[in-house]
Specification:
It is built from three helices and four strands. By secondary structure, it is of the alpha+beta class.
């Protein structure tokens, strides 16, 4: 419990209260990761729904559905992905301190975040295979 090092030598846990606060902070970060992931999925779904347009094909004369994502939506999706990816790697580095209390705080934060956002997720998720982060 004493002198646990998190992420870098600059952040050393010296007493039980610091450990409790560190665990709470990691729980909140893991919870926010799931909230961010849910928001990213919902935003991607809304972009997908808005980006389909029906246009007239000049060659065949038939109606064709076209998929165009605006630059603003593409940039926002990219930023959300980068933030989610960064947060996932920060959590991974924290777990790699091999402290069981921190590990459990991250797992519980992620589980609670997933549970509370489960009904907010789109039915077809673009990140269903997103298990590495």
């Amino acid at each position: 419990l004493n002198r646990m090092v998190t992420v870098s030598d600059a952040k050393k846990v010296m007493n039980a209260w610091q450990m409790v606060l560190s665990c709470i902070a990691m729980f909140v970060l893991a919870f926010l990761y799931e909230v961010l992931k849910t928001y990213r999925e919902r935003f991607a779904e809304s972009v997908r729904q808005r980006s389909f347009q029906t246009i007239q094909d000049n060659v065949s004369g038939q109606q064709v559905r076209s998929h165009m994502v605006s630059q603003v939506d593409a940039v926002l999706q990219t930023l959300l992905q980068a933030l989610s990816f960064t947060l996932a790697y920060v959590l991974m580095l924290v777990v790699m301190t091999y402290n069981i209390y921190i590990f459990l705080a991250v797992i519980l934060g992620d589980a609670v975040g997933y549970y509370l956002t489960l009904n907010l997720r789109p039915t077809v998720s673009s990140t269903d295979a997103d298990h590495c982060h």
